[in-house]
Here is the input.
Amino acid sequence: MRKHWLKLFVAVTMACSTASVQADLVNGDVEGGTGLADIPGWLSWGPSGALEGSYAHSGAQCVRLWWDDTGLFQNFSVIGGQTYTASGYLYTPTSERYTWDVGNNTYASLKLEWYQADGVTSAGPGIETTRFTPDDLADVWAFRSISGAAPASATIGRMVLAIGGSGPASGTVAFDSLSAVAAVPEPSTMAFLVTSLVGLPMLLRRRKA
Ligand SMILES: [Ca+2]
Here is the structure.
C-alpha cells in the first residue's frame, strides 16, 4: 500500500506547474566596459572579438566575434535537477556578412555547460542552441534558446558565447540580450508539496497502525 501512495505522490509532483525565475546571470545586455576583457559580469578569452556600438538588440551595444579562438562566458548558480533555459539574440550585419566556403561547417551558438562546486570539474554534458550559420538572414536579430536539466552534481551553470565548427569563415557574428532562467514550481504548487510531504508520512503511519 505504501508503494501505491508513493507512486501517486511522484505522479502528482511531476504534473505540478512551474514558473520561470531569473538565474543570477548579470548584465545579459552586455553593456559597459571598454573591450571584451572588461565587460561587467563576463569573462572572455582570445583576441578576435569586440564591443559593437553601431548596432545592438538592447541598450547601447552588443558584443561580436569573428573567429573561433575567442568567446565569452559567465557562471551562475544552479541547483541539480532543476531545468534551466539559456537564450539570446545573434546577428550578422550586411556590411560584415558572416559567410563560409562550400563544405565549411563554421557556426555560432549559445552553450550551457555544467560544473561542480570547484568550477572546473564537469558535472555532465552541456547543451547547445540551434546553430547560427551563414544561412541565417543578415540584419535580423535571430532568437536562440536551449533548455535542459542541470545534472545532479551541478552547482554552476556556464553560459558560453562562441563560434565553433571548422574551416575558414569570414564576417562577424554579434550576441546580445542574453538571459538564463530557472523553471521552479509555482508557489501554490510548493504549498501543496509541503502539505503533501508533511501529510504523506502521517497518512502512511495511520494506514500501518
Ligand atoms: Ca546590449
